[in-house]
Amino acid sequence: MKGLSLAVCLIIVVLGFFAFMLRNNPDRKHIQDALGVLREPLTGVPGESDSIGFIKVNESQLNQRFSIDAGLSALEHSDLQTVKGTLIYQQYLRAQLEYKLAELKEIGGDITSKELLERRSNYVDATSKLQAYIDSQLKWK
Description:
Elements lengths: L1 H22 L4 H12 L19 H8 L1 H9 L3 H29 L4 H25 L4
């Protein structure tokens, strides 16, 4: 019985020690920031209208109209609007991925805040171009 009590006490002490170390870890904020970024969807149109990258159109419509397959099919049929839209949408997705990767790299100290702002600016520009194309060229229902 003494052996079991001693084992339980040892487990409690070890767990307490690890909890103390995690709580006082100087990198805790960086870890929490990284986990926050990783919880977000990697690609796709953000759901909140005030988010960077928000597009005023249903994401499934974007994916259906401007997927790689739709773009290739449009090339075969000389549908230049769809080809152009596909290229603009793919640029948007690339800029989105580059920005999310830059967020993680900045948390880890691999890039500067200036580089993160450049990626953010590229993402905002790609979002504006896609939204402008949708607004001016296509009739979404």
